Structures are given as structure tokens and as C-alpha cells.
Amino acid sequence: MKTELKIAGLFMAALLFAGCMGAKPVAEKGAIDNMAPAEAAAERAHLKAMRAEAKGFIAEKRRDKNLYIGEGTANIGADLGKGKLEAKNRAREELARQIRVKVESDFQLITEKRGVGASAEVQQEITQRLETYTSQVLTNVQESDFFIDYPKTGTVTVLVFIPKEAYEVQVKEDLNQKKEMVVEAVKQAEKALKNGEYVRALKQFLEAGTMQRAFFGRVPVYAEIDGDGLRDELSNHVTFRVEGITSRIQLSLLNDTFLYDPEGHLEKQPRVLARYLDGTGTSVPVTSLPLVASFAEGQGRVAPCVTGVYGQAELAVSAVDPSLKTAVLQVAPDFTSLGDFSAYDLPPMRPLKVDLLRKRAVALLVCCKNGGKGINVSGLTDAVTSLLLNRQLTVVPVDNGQTVASVSGDSLNADYLLAVEVVPSGGGTVGSYANMHAARCGAGLSLYTLPAKSLTKKENLASQEGFGITAESAVWDAFGKSREPIVKAAGKMMERVQ
Predict the structure, then answer these.
(1) Which of 49, 126, 233, 353 has the most other CB atoms within 10 Å of its CB?
(2) Strand pairing partners for 411?
């Protein structure tokens, strides 16, 4: 139980028990001299016994090698409470100086870095870390009783102390544990790098760097990493690895020619290969690498992806703005999703460019007029459509009830308008043969550039002659003979359209 060493005067002899630690301070200086000789002698004996006990207690604590101790003494004056507070503060200051020296010694031992020769920023970081640990230790300080009128009348003394075991847990073990966490993360990263697990290695190097900055700030920390007997500065080692891995990863395309239709849908998705180029020039596939893609030119929707077992990934382009004839994707490793790169000065990585082309769209108008009545020319339309599709062109059908004049170039989502006009004629009898009819079929092809609808090419084909037992069959015979020349002419007209 906490007591106070007090002296009350001649008539309080009953308080002279073994502890002598519970009475009020003695009378003011000179009071003993005013006492009767016997009473003064008794009081002096009391003071002597009390001070001897206090001295013995303090000496015993100081001999305890398991404690860090601070001792503080202050004048009592007219306010005992104020004197006690001042004594305690002085004791804590002395203990803090001892703890700080110990913390600094252990910090230097564990980080293997002294403040001497360090930059002003690092020196400030060291100081801040030392103060933090010192303050942390002093939160668990124990206190002795207050020794009043010790070491002399009118003063108060107190001890503060902390078990060294508690310090070891709070500081030394904590520092060692944090350092080991960083070292272990670096070693695991080195193991992953050796095994060709580049993404895993990069993650763990980043984790190690983040932990070191959190635990030690900019204070250098040294440790043996790769078994070569040399002690590396961990921050520099991590930076070297992070920059080395990221700079050696390269992307390339596995396929080419990416076309999208007038609806903005790609015919095939680009496939990307990620490789790591080692020091010997050998390339190794990089698995589990997140990739980010965006439109450098044009607009559309594309989702991120991750490389698979063989370092390959298929981009997920769900839409491209079809109003544009071209678009450009840029693809790069999504390093930021792997960890915090803010502490590293990485050179900008040149992204992989992927060119997207809108398939040339051809609006196809096939019409045939005979006697003011439309004739079904779906077979011819299908044949020309098949030709255009084989040329990797998109076909936009135009109602055959329209004419070139009635078609609006702005309304068609196409690059060209191919107009095929078939004009059958005749159908009368041949000579005196009532059951023999003859007809002719002419055709003209025109290619217009949209949306201006400017004429680019035009060709008129020679008429084909047809015969039949009726006028209608004669027309169809002439039309049938015209079909192949029309398709050939359309193919030749579209040769330079890509």
C-alpha cells in the first residue's frame, strides 16, 4: 500500500513504526531546535531511521538488474501535491533518458543503421521513431511510494521503474518481429521470382516495401537475403526488384486484322501474350497478369482481363463506336492492382496498340423494272451479297422499291452505295411463231461514295437476249443470262474497296 513518510512532531511518537512512511512533513526548519532536548532527540532519531529506510529501499531497487529506474526529488514548499508532481515528472524524465538510450541502441542494432552520416530527413525519421517507442514504453511505468523529507527535510522523492522484460516485449521483440516480417516477405518474393512466378513475386516485393515504410519509414534496414553472405539494404533491394520485373514484362499480339461491323461488334477479339525477358534474352510467359485496356482513339466498351497459364489473354471488347471508321485500343499491365507503387519511380511503359477497323459497309440496291412492275430479283441480290461478304465487306440492304435518287446517303450507315439496275425489254413473238418470244436484258452498275453520294464508278453491261414460249419466260431467260455478267462486274467494281 502506498504511504507517505511524514513527521508530525513530538506528540506523534506512536507513528514511529517500522515503515515510518505515513506521517506529515516535519515542522518548519528550526522547529526541532525549539523542542525540549529529549523530544528533539527522539525526532532526530525518527528522521534518521526514516531516511535510512528510504535510502535502503532506493538502493535495493537500483541493484535490481531487471529494472530500468528513474529517481526524482523536488522541494515541498507550501504545496505537497505540487512537490509530488514535480518529483514524479523528474523521475520520469530520468527514466525516459535511459529508455531512449536503450531504444536507440536496439534500433541501430536491428536496422543496422546509425544516424551518423544520414540525411536530415532520415535523421528526423530516426528521432521520431525513437520518441514513439520511448513514449510507448513509458505508458506502463510503475511508481514507488513518495518519500517525504528525503533526502533532506522539506523535499519529496519518488522512484519510477519498468521491468526490462516488459521493455523487451514492447520494443526489442517488436522491432525484431517487424524486421523479420519484412525479410520473410522479401525472401518469399525472391523464391517466387526464381520459380518464374513474376506476378506473385511483384506482389510480395510490394508488400515488403509497404511494411518497411510502415515499420521503419525511410530508415535503412539491412539483412542478408540471397545467401551470399552480404547484407542488403532492404528498401534498395525491393526497389531494384520492382523496377526490374516491371521493365522486363512485354506485351505482343497473337492475331491481327480486327474488324467491327456497322453495329460496333468485333468479328474476333484481340489475343495478347505477356512475356518476361530475363537477363539471357529468354522469354517466359507471365501468368496471372492483370491487363487494362482502354480506347486511345474512338470510343467503346472493353473490360479488363488476366493472362492465363500460357501468358495469354483475350480482350473483351463488347462494343466499338460504329460511327467511326477506325479505333485504337491501348493495352498495358495493370500493375496498380497488384499493390502500392507510389514509392517507386517507374518509367512510363509504352502500351500495346491495337488497331480496329470498321468493316467497309456497302449499301446494296438491286432493282429491276419491266413494264412498270417490279420483278423479284432476290437470287441476284443474294449472289451479289455473297460476293461482298466474301470480300470482308458488310452489306446493308436497301429496299428495292427505292431508287438512287430517293436514297439518303446520311441515313445509310455505310461507306458506299452499289446500285444494280436491271432493265429487261421486249418479249414479243419471233417472226410468225406465235409460241416463240424474244426479250433482252440490259444492266447498269453504279458505285457511290457515301454520305455525299458522289459517283465513283459506273458500268453499263451489254444486253443479253432471251427466248421463251411466253413473253414472261423470254424475259426471265434474258435475265438469267445477265446474272453472271452482273455478278462479275460487281466483283470487279469492288476490287479496290477494302
Answers:
(1) 126
(2) none
What's the CA gap between 478 and 439, in Å, rounded? 6
Q: What is the pLDDT of residues 369-380, one digit of tens each?
A: 765 455 678 889
Give the three cell numbers for residue 395: 452489306
Length of the chain in terms of residues written: 498
- Distance (Å, whole) CA 439 – CA 473: 9
Q: What is the pLDDT of residue 359?
A: 84
Angle at 235 between CA 233 and CA 241, to 5 degrees: 100
Picking from 409, 391, 396, the residue whose alpha carbon sits closest to that of residue 455 is 409
CB neighbour burial string for 238-260, b if at least 16 within 10 angstroms, e if fewer? bbebbeebbebbbbebeeeebbb
Q: In this structure, is the dihedral angle defined by the CA atoms of residues 283, 317, 333 and 197, taken in order, positive or negative? A: negative
- Helical segments of 373-470, H only: 378-390
Q: CA-CA distance, 166 to 1, in Å (whole number)?
A: 23
Residue 180 C-alpha cell reads as 523479420
Amino acid in position 298? G
Buried b (16+ CB within 10 A) or exposed e, 378-390: eebbebbbebbee
Interior angle at CA 247, CA 243 and CA 249, nearest 5: 125
Distance CA 394, CA 204 (A): 50
The answer to whether the pTM exceeds 0.85 is: no
Which cell goes with 232? 542488403
Alpha carbons within 13 A on the beta-carbon side of 280: 3
DSSP run (H or E) holding 205: helix 198-216
Pairwise CA distance, residues 104 & 113, whole Å: 10
The pairing of strands 258-260 and 352-358 is parallel
Q: In one letter, which amino acid is 104?
A: E
pLDDT tens digits along 21-69: 333 344 343 445 555 666 667 766 777 787 888 888 888 888 888 888 9
Grid coordinates representing 454? 458522289
8-state DSSP, 324: S
- Residues 6 or more apart from 384 whose CB is under 8 A from it? 364, 366, 418, 420, 486, 487, 490
